[in-house]
Design a protein that fits this description.
Blueprint: H1 2-19, H2 51-61, E1 66-75, E2 82-91, H3 97-104, E3 124-130, E4 133-138, H4 141-145, H5 149-164, E5 172-177, E6 180-181, E7 195-196
Parallel strand pairs: 4-5
Antiparallel strand pairs: 1-2, 3-4, 5-6, 5-7
């Protein structure tokens, strides 16, 4: 009798264990927190940066504006001498400093006892460095509008020469008009050779 009772109890235990609902592979048990799932949607893109893009961005940040203190030379009001004054220029490349410096001379000076010597509407087309020579290419309008006479011509040429030779690498200055060599600006100074300070 005991054997039958033990066998019956064993069968009941096995049956009750088999009736318990076991979670399937795709069912999350209610007592356990849901885990985050990775879902990819076709309309959303994930953008990644490669090293090349990062390098391009870094190099473009290197072209920052740089401030530089320079000395430029204006004639005094009395027309007796050239006076050095400090100016600040902003450049993004070292080679731009020559043109930026001479462009200061196109502006009326802030100092009351100084005057600008370039005629109205004068333009400097370019300034390049050839070894120790700064090559200044002036627009032809400078000869049409220049009315300074021999003293004015001397002051204009020397203000450019003195300003550019403030840079240690520049020893002399050659003048061109519209890319061509010229003998003179207004008939008074010989510009066929580079001018030294």
């Amino acid at each position: 009798m005991k054997k039958i009772l033990i066998s019956a109890m064993t069968v009941l235990l096995l049956l009750s264990a088999g009736c318990e609902k076991q979670p399937g592979p795709n069912v999350t048990p209610p007592d356990e927190p849901k885990q985050a799932q990775n879902v990819t949607t076709p309309d959303k893109k994930v953008e990644t940066k490669n090293d090349d893009t990062a390098n391009v961005e870094a190099s473009s940040n290197n072209n920052k504006v740089k401030s530089m203190q320079i000395t430029v030379y204006y004639p005094d009001q009395a027309g007796m001498s050239l006076i050095p004054v400090k100016r600040e220029i902003k450049i993004t490349e070292e080679s731009q400093k020559y043109l930026a410096a001479v462009n200061c001379l196109l502006d009326q000076p802030k100092e009351e006892d100084l005057t600008k010597i370039f005629p109205k509407g004068a333009k400097i087309k370019s300034i390049t460095l050839d070894k120790d020579t700064a090559v200044v290419d002036l627009d032809s309008g400078i000869t049409k509008n220049f009315v300074g006479g021999s003293t004015g011509e001397e002051f204009l040429i020397n203000s450019v020469v003195d300003t550019l030779t403030e840079f240690n690498e520049v020893k002399q200055v050659r003048f061109l008009i519209d890319g061509r060599e010229v003998e003179t600006l207004a008939g008074h100074m010989d510009l066929s050779e580079p001018i030294k300070r």
